[in-house]
Amino acid sequence: MACRFILQNPSKRKLLHSTFASRSASTLVLAEHEGGSIKAQSLSAVVAANSISRDNPVSLLLAGSGSSLQQAAEKAATCHPCISQVLVADSDKFAYPLAEPWGKLIQLVQLKGGYSHVIATSSSFGKNILPRAAALLDVSPVTDVVEINGPNQFIRPIYAGNALCTVRYTGASPCMLSVRSTSFPVPPLGDSKSDGASISEVDLSTLDEESIGKSRFIKLSSEETDRPDLGSARVVVTGGRALKSAENFKMIEKLAEKLGAAVGATRAAVDAGFVPNELQVGQTGKIVAPELYMAFGVSGAIQHLAGMKDSKVIVAVNKDADAPIFQVADYGLVGDLFEAIPDLLEKLPEKK
Amino acid sequence: MKIMVAVKRVVDYAVKIRVRPDKNGVETQNVKMSMNPFCEIALEEALKIKESGFAKEVVAVSMGPSNCVDTLRTGLAMGADRAIHVEASRDLVPLTVAKLLKKLVEVENPGLLILGKQAIDDDCNQTGQMIAGLLGWPQGTFASKVVLDKEKHTASVDREVDGGLETLCLDLPAVITTDLRLNQPRYATLPNIMKAKSKPIKKYTPEELNVEIKSDFEVVQVTEPPKRKAGVILSSVDELIDKLKNEAHVI
């Protein structure tokens, strides 16, 4: 397939070398971009791609429209040494991350490029799009991979993280993965390499548009915040039902501010309307693995633990000494959070 | 319009699961099984749409071994009109489920397909997206609000995405997968549980639907996640700050 593609596209002969060298592994990474940059989360998919095999040229696929897309493509070309190519799909159809055009795009790019692996981060974007594309390609994706042991063997959590399943992919190419970003941390990138990867436009003339246009983006409403992103924060401070009100939840926010931390919440706190849903940590919310996770008034239900038990240090403050959260906490404080938080606010050292 | 809802029988969400000693999987013998919580929400939404007059019939579908019928009975007791059971003895991967669903869609011709966003056993979060792709229908995943427009024949869906809430407008027929906050599923009342016993459950086999059951995976092993080392209970905030600073070095 790769051969035919090159013969049909003499202008892309430059790719010949990398495509042939990649017979063992070649990976397509689906990346998200925002404001002219690749999202940090998408880079963990690149890190994962890099761990499949050493000789694994990575093509990064970006879609969108206009100048911010081109800007992101230029940055992407130099952001990681293993990226050999940046593919850009520039069209109004990709102005919003809709699954229908994206699914078709991935199918198109895969049929031309014949990649052995297609990887996305298991963000809401990746989870929405990857399985649709996989169905179009008639393969089964592996969701939420936390460890890669070679080109076909992966570990993923099941049952809300209470078991780890090692699977061997035996299906046809491509092997499609969504990877958990906290398991593939992006090392601080040194000097970006001077010779960037090649940037090429995806030829969209053969894009099958049959199912495109049946969905339309209306709006995105989000809370503006200058706190660090929950998914990648070094410290996370979480509040549960015991906060009792949105008013009281502000104490959690104050504490987070003092620690330079992101704010998380349990399902109970979100359902009670204390905070918006995007702050939910757990099996169905965000999965975090910060250096320090502080849980206030959180009982520690299975579904919540699924989202935070890989944190390095866990602190729990709860009135109930029997709360299950204490079984995973490194440091526990049995007491009233309405006394502990103000005390912490007063005594914590100022952030430098 | 007819709404089809896919429901899965899974280990009850409150059960603390045990990994089998032979590392072949998770113990499911003599463990309480229930309808996947997200599927309950999917069914509730379908019933609400029917009650609002937009849909005429709600069909619940489940795939797997014969005891999936219990799950379908639960669905019928909640208010589904009838049920379809595709009996398969092997574990089914989402792609196979999506292919079986596609065949059923071709037979039943529903105007809307509602699924849960993920099953709490395999945590895959794939089936809804896959069936939408196979049918070429638009998809509204992780829905926390669904509003149907009868005249325009569209569905407005609020989706829970990482950055907040996204609103999409989908042409029907469409596939919707439900998030936790879409609704509060009802309980089946005793009279409805009794009535459900006489509602029809149609049976198919994968062979009848002409779908080959295969898996693209081999499970090498299932293990317990690493245990965290036991923590300590501290007596004061001062001690906590001291430990975080001098022992854990995280602040």
Strand content of chain A: 15-25%
* Helix coverage percent of chain A: 25-40%
In DSSP terms, counting alpha (H) and pi (I) runs of 4 or more, how many helices of chain B? 6
The run of helices and strands of chain B is EEEHEHEHEHEEEEHEEEH
CATH architecture of the largest domain in chain A: 3-Layer(aba) Sandwich
The order of strands across the largest sheet of chain B is 9-8-7-10-6-1-4-5-11
Strand runs of chain A, count:
18
Shape of chain B: globular
Main sheet summary of chain B: 9 strands, mixed
SSE order and pairing:
The complex is a heterodimer of chains A (352) and B (251).
Chain A: H1 2-8, H2 16-21, E1 27-30, E2 33-34, E3 37-38, H3 40-50, E4 58-64, H4 67-77, E5 83-90, H5 99-113, E6 117-121, H6 124-137, E7 142-145, E8 147-148, E9 153-158, E10 163-169, E11 175-179, E12 198-201, E13 215-221, E14 235-239, H7 246-259, E15 262-265, H8 267-271, E16 292-296, H9 302-305, E17 313-318, E18 331-334, H10 337-347
Parallel strand pairs in A: 1-4, 1-6, 4-5, 5-12, 6-11, 7-11, 14-15, 14-16, 16-17, 17-18
Antiparallel strand pairs in A: 2-3, 8-9, 9-10
Chain B: E1 2-6, E2 9-11, E3 33-35, H1 37-51, E4 57-64, H2 68-78, E5 82-87, H3 94-108, E6 112-116, H4 127-135, E7 139-149, E8 154-161, E9 164-171, E10 174-178, H5 190-196, E11 201-204, E12 217-223, E13 232-234, H6 237-246
Parallel strand pairs in B: 1-4, 1-6, 4-5, 5-11, 6-10, 7-10
Antiparallel strand pairs in B: 2-3, 7-8, 8-9
Helix pairs in contact in B: 2-5, 3-4
Protein name (chain A): Electron transfer flavoprotein subunit alpha
Organism (chain A): Hibiscus syriacus
InterPro entries (chain A): DHS-like_NAD/FAD-binding_dom (IPR029035), ETF_a/b_N (IPR014730), ETF_a/FixB (IPR001308), ETF_alpha_N (IPR033947), ETF_asu_C (IPR014731), ETF_asu_C_CS (IPR018206), Rossmann-like_a/b/a_fold (IPR014729)
